[in-house]
Amino acid sequence: MPMVTYVLPDGSEHAIDVPCGQTVMDGSVRNNLPGIVAECGGSCSCATCHVYVDPDSQALFDEMTDEERELLEFADGAQADSRLSCQLVVTTECDGVRVTVSAANG
User: Fold this and answer.
1) CB 3.0-4.6 Å disulfide test: which of 5, 25, 52, 84 passes with 98?
2) pLDDT in tens, 8-56
3) Per the UniProt record, which residue ranges are transmembrane (predicted)?
4) Nearest to 62, CA basis, from 39, 44, 82, 87
């Protein structure tokens, strides 16, 4: 099972096994990590699961949809490496992925 490392706003790191087919958001929510609020439950409509994806990991995920891009345009703290974790589906290649949770979520 791929391991995803979540860097929380307080600087702490949590390495979580996330089953293939689930999202980075699912891994956080199912393990009760703080920071990813996921108000919309993963339907790409709220941007409360905003993360920053390490440059080495960005190519492991599908390209951003127009819907995701529009939501991130209005998200506090959005940067070039911003993604919505509900749109980041974990595959076997994702083992070792690191994401930093935005302090602006929620």
Assistant:
1) 5
2) 999 999 999 999 999 999 999 999 999 999 999 889 999 999 999 999 9
3) none
4) 87
Between strands 50-53 and 3-7, the pairing is unpaired
Domain count, the chain: 1
* Size of the chain, expressed as the number of residues it contains: 106
Q: Residue 9, Cβ neighbours under 10 Å: how many? A: 13
Residue 78 lies in a domain: yes
Candidates 9, 95, 16; CA nearest to 51 is 9
Q: Whole domain around residue 82: which residue ranges? A: 3-101
Contacts 24+ apart (CB under 8 A), 16-20: 18/90, 18/94, 19/90, 20/90, 20/91, 20/92, 20/94
- Cβ partners under 8 Å of residue 81, min gap 6: 52, 53, 54, 55, 58
Whether 106 is covered by a domain: the verdict is no
pTM comes to: 0.94
